[in-house]
Amino acid sequence: MLSLKISGLTKVYLNGTTALDQVSFSAQPGEGIVLLGANGSGKSTLLRCILGLETATSGDICIGNWQISQLNSQQLRQMRSQLGMVFQKFHLVGSLSAFHNVLHGALGRSTSPRYWFPATAPEIERKRAMECLDRVNLTHFAQQRADTLSGGQQQRVAIARTLMQNPKLILVDEPVASLDPQAGKEVMDLLWSIVREQRLTVICTLHQLALAREYGDRIIGLRDGKIQMDTTVNYLQDRDLTMLYEPEFGVRCSELGIREIST
Ligand SMILES: Nc1ncnc2c1ncn2[C@@H]1O[C@H](COP(=O)(O)OP(=O)(O)OP(=O)(O)O)[C@@H](O)[C@H]1O
Ligand SMILES: [Mg+2]
Fold this sequence. Notes:
Elements: E1 4-12, E2 18-27, E3 32-36, H1 43-51, E4 58-63, E5 66-67, H2 73-80, E6 83-87, H3 98-103, H4 123-135, H5 151-164, E7 169-173, H6 181-197, E8 201-205, H7 209-215, E9 218-223, E10 226-232, H8 238-249, H9 253-256, H10 258-261
Parallel strand pairs: 3-8, 3-9, 6-7, 7-8
Antiparallel strand pairs: 1-2, 1-4, 4-5, 9-10
This protein binds adenosine-5'-triphosphate and magnesium ion (MG).
């Protein structure tokens, strides 16, 4: 399990856009955080900074004992191998089988060319890839080309590939945005059951407030790159959510289903 501590994180892109402005929070090992915010509020930038794919303009991120701003490229690779990432777009290699895509999750552990192909990968890794596919209930689709699977199945393959990495912290960016409600619910159920059974720390961006309430332990809301709200789901207020979305976009709470999801 890995802890995460973000202190005064600011990200100004080269074009002058301030995507993150003094963001600070800590995530405890095993905590499930849902990140909410309107389009452009900085959610993906935050995840990319945690992954070390964007360099912070100021502030810092500590993951376990790693202080990201101090890492050289080799240490950064080592740190990233502990992090799993699930995206809205599944980023599978469409022409390869589900099994082959999952096997590639082991590449974070070894860059040996042996790991690139099922025929040459070590037996233990091939066995593990099948176990990961089994965990997402896709054993029967192991040899099917990824681009012939449904969206929900492709996202499950992507989750299996992440599992193959054996991550300690998972970053998830709009995992169900491309899926219909039923497939989206199945993917969230699966993802969260894995997170819970392995006691992983997860940070997940969502636009579906009902899902945020259902799955998040804690909700962090960003607005214009600043933390506007940081609360456990039990204390989540409709007006906090309104503040996140309404001023810029004029989106009414009722349209977002906030009443509907109130407890
Ligand atoms: N590479 C970049 N160069 C310049 N500006 C960028 C870059 N990436 C993101 N931005 C800007 O930073 C801000 C935050 O973008 P980001 O993608 O983090 O938002 P988001 O909350 O993930 O939005 P969405 O909900 O639409 O995915 C936006 O104003 C965006 O235009
Ligand atoms: Mg985004």
